[in-house]
Design brief:
Number of domains: 2
Shape: globular
Largest sheet: 6 strands, mixed
Organism: Parafrankia irregularis
Number of strands: 19
Distance between the termini: 42 Å
CATH superfamily of the largest domain: Alkaline Phosphatase, subunit A
CATH architecture of the largest domain: 3-Layer(aba) Sandwich
Protein name: Type I phosphodiesterase / nucleotide pyrophosphatase
CATH class of the largest domain: Alpha Beta
CATH topology of the largest domain: Alkaline Phosphatase, subunit A
Number of helices: 15
Strand content: 15-25%
GO molecular function, one term: hydrolase activity
Helix content: 25-40%
InterPro entries: Alkaline_phosphatase_core_sf, Phosphodiest/P_Trfase
Length: 392
C-alpha cells in the first residue's frame, strides 16, 4: 500500500452527485466524471466497497466486475470514513467545505462530536466509543453546523424529485440533516425493500434521483476483516442487489454504484495502543478521529511537542502533520473554510501500511475491529464508480 492523496480536482466522491445532476440539467452542476445523462437515476452507495477489494474478489461479484471493465476508480477524500464521505456525496463538496472532517472531531474547546451518531464523545481523551446518552442535535443544530445548500436541495429547487432509501434510523439523524437534507426518506429494513423501494421511486413522476445506501459489507469488514469468508459472502449479496436494481431500471434509467471508502485488514502486530503509550497523550487536550486517522487537539504551546513525539514513536508507519501542513497538502480539499479549520486537529496523524492507533481503554469496541479505514493508502482511497443503464 502506498500514499495516495485524494484527487479533488479531477475525480473524487464529491464530484459524483454534481456529475449526476448535471446530466439532469440542474443549474450550476458540472459533469466532471463524464457520467451518462439520464432523467431517472439511482445512486447506490455500498459502504466499504473498495476498488482493490472488488478487483481482488471478482469471482464473488461478477455483475459489478463486468461494470468495472475498462473503468478507472475515483478517490474517496480524507478521511476515508463514512461520515466524511456521505457528506461529500450529499453536499457535492470536499471535506474542507462541508466541514465533516472525520468520524469524530472537536466542536468546541472541550467537546468532541461523533458525527455518525451526532452525539458527544466527551473530550475524546477519556470519552470512550461515544456517549450514546448525549444527543447533540438540539445544541449543535445540523442545518447550522453545515449551512450550505446540499446537492439534493439544489436538485429539488430545479424540479428533481429526490428520494433517499435506507435504514429507518437515518431519517432525521444529525448527519442526514447536515449533509443529505432535501430529499424524502423511505425506510428500508432489508435488501428486499431496499430493492423494491428503489424500483418504486424510479417509476414515480420524473425527473427523479434516488439515493440508496447499503451498510452491511462495511459492518462485516470491521467484524471479520475485509476478504474474510463472511465478507466475501456479503459481497456476493451486494452484487445481486446491484444486478437486481439494474434489471428493474425504467426505460432510460441509470444506476451509479460507488462507495465511501475501502478497508485494510490488521493484525495484532499492526496495533499501537495509545492508552499504553503515555507519551502519545502528553500535551493532548482533545482526541478525535479513529484508528487509522487521528485528530490531536493540543494544549496551548504544545502542538510542536506533540507533533514531534508522535513522529518519533510512529516513524515511517504514519504521516504526522501539523494542521497547516495537512491543509497545505490538500488533504481536506483545495479550499478549507475558516470556520472548518478549528475542527481539524492541531496535529493530524494518517496511518501508513496496516498500522492502527487503537485506544483499548476508552475505545474498547473499535479497538477489536479486524478491519479499519480512514487513511491515505490506495486500499482505502480508491473506490469504484460504475454505471449500468436501461437504454430501452
Amino acid at each position: 500500500m502506498s500514499f495516495l492523496a485524494p484527487d479533488y480536482r479531477a475525480g473524487s466522491l464529491a464530484d459524483v452527485m454534481p456529475s449526476v445532476l448535471a446530466g439532469m440539467d440542474v443549474p450550476g452542476m458540472a459533469n466532471v466524471l463524464g457520467l451518462p445523462a439520464a432523467s431517472r437515476v439511482c445512486v447506490l452507495l455500498v459502504d466499504g466497497l473498495g476498488w482493490q477489494l472488488l478487483r481482488a474478489h471478482a469471482d464473488q461479484a461478477p455483475f459489478l466486475t463486468s461494470l468495472a471493465a475498462g473503468r478507472d476508480p475515483i478517490t474517496a477524500g480524507f478521511p476515508a470514513t463514512t461520515a466524511t464521505s456521505v457528506s461529500a456525496i450529499g453536499t457535492g463538496m470536499p471535506p474542507g467545505e462541508h466541514g465533516i472532517v472525520g468520524y469524530s472531531f472537536a466542536v468546541g474547546p472541550d467537546e468532541v462530536l461523533n458525527a455518525l451518531g451526532w452525539r458527544s464523545q466527551g473530550n475524546g481523551v477519556g470519552g470512550g466509543d461515544g456517549d450514546s446518552s448525549v444527543d447533540l442535535r438540539d445544541r449543535i443544530v445540523p442545518e447550522q453546523f453545515q449551512p450550505r445548500p446540499t446537492a439534493f436541495e439544489r436538485a429539488v429547487a430545479a424540479g428533481v424529485a429526490v428520494r433517499l432509501v435506507g435504514p429507518a434510523h437515518h431519517d432525521g439523524s444529525g448527519l442526514n440533516r447536515a449533509a443529505l437534507r432535501g430529499g424524502r426518506h423511505r425506510a428500508a429494513h432489508a435488501l428486499g425493500d431496499l430493492t423494491s423501494g428503489v424500483r418504486d421511486e424510479l417509476r414515480g413522476p420524473g425527473p427523479v434521483l434516488c439515493y440508496a445506501y447499503h451498510g452491511d459489507l462495511d459492518l462485516l469488514g470491521h467484524r471479520y476483516g475485509p476478504g474474510s469468508d463472511p465478507w466475501r459472502e456479503q459481497l456476493a449479496v451486494v452484487d445481486q442487489l446491484a444486478a437486481r436494481i439494474a434489471a428493474g431500471l425504467p426505460p432510460g434509467g441509470l444506476l451509479v454504484v460507488t462507495a465511501d471508502h475501502g478497508m485494510v485488514a490488521v493484525a495484532e502486530q499492526d496495533r499501537v495502543d495509545v492508552d499504553t503509550e503515555p507519551s502519545l497523550l502528553d500535551g493532548v487536550r482533545l482526541f478525535g478521529g479513529e484508528a487509522r486517522i487521528r485528530h490531536l487537539y493540543t494544549h496551548p504551546g504544545a502542538a510542536d511537542d506533540v507533533w514531534r513525539a508522535w513522529g518519533e514513536i510512529l516513524g515511517e508507519r504514519a504521516l504526522v502533520l501539523r494542521r497547516h501542513e495537512a491543509i497545505e497538502a490538500g488533504w481536506f480539499g483545495p479550499r478549507v473554510a475558516e470556520h472548518v479549520r478549528p475542527r481539524i486537529g492541531d496535529v493530524v496523524v494518517a496511518a501508513q501500511g496496516t498500522l492502527v492507533m487503537i485506544r483499548s481503554g476508552v475505545e474498547p469496541r473499535s479497538s477489536r475491529f479486524a478491519g479499519h479505514h480512514g487513511s491515505l493508502t490506495d486500499s482505502e482511497q480508491l473506490i469504484p464508480l460504475l454505471t449500468a443503464s436501461n437504454s430501452r
